[in-house]
Amino acid sequence: MTPTITAFASSPDRGRGLARDMPVRWALEEVGQPYEVELVSFEAMKAPAHRARQPFGQIPTYQEGDLVLFESGAIVLHVAGRLPGLLPEEPAARARAIGWMFAALSTIEQAILYREIPTYTERDRPWFEARKPILDDQARRRLADLSDRLGRADWLDGAFSAGDLLMVQALRRLGSSRLLEERANLAAYVARGEARPAFRRAFAAQRAAFEAASAQRGGD
Ligand code: GTB
Hints:
This protein is α+β, with helices and mostly antiparallel strands. It folds into two domains: 4-85 and 198-217, Glutaredoxin (3-Layer(aba) Sandwich), CATH 3.40.30; 91-196, Glutathione S-transferase Yfyf (Class Pi), Chain A, domain 2 (Up-down Bundle). Helix content is 59%, strand content 8%. S-(P-nitrobenzyl)glutathione is lined by residues 12-13, 18-20, 57-60, 71-73.
């Protein structure tokens, strides 16, 4: 059965592959699983029909027969568990790869988002300029630890895994920020992930969806 995922009809990231359908698309491409995409508007996302599959009114979701899943990490884990390519067979290595998935989402991405979100929500507040370097340093500490662990390796624990997929995607949120530039091995790690054919296919697909939506609106 071909799974269907949901993604933004018109992504606010303007096709930069930062929305959370991107790791799901990437995982599906890595394991060679064809998929369909249902594009949803902001309005449709908040409607009861979509909330029945995603309680928070967000994308992405994943439907495969009777199975309906939300949370991009859970979806990537499900995809990685169904088909080979993203998790090692050996039980201990598999458990460690899953550990890296959680580290990506709850340790690294969390620090990146703590730093990023106030730039949207608190920019005009009197404390913002004083708080910014504190948030930068918190993220920097996490990145330094990750950089030390990665060292000169290509991937976090042997072969490329779902842990690397989510970690690279989390680091992509930093864009071309100096925080990534400061850690050359992490910048190279992200570039290695982005060079994977599966990443490129996923990226092209979400970019095409954004461009089609933008052309429909008359370009912007
Ligand atoms: N924990 C959930 C998951 O991982 O699936 C989080 C899902 C989520 O945050 N979805 C966002 C959403 O639907 C889109 S991806 N937001 C609409 C809403 O909450 O009303 C987050 C996102 C949005 C925009 C950018 N961007 O513009 O760069 C990047 C990431």
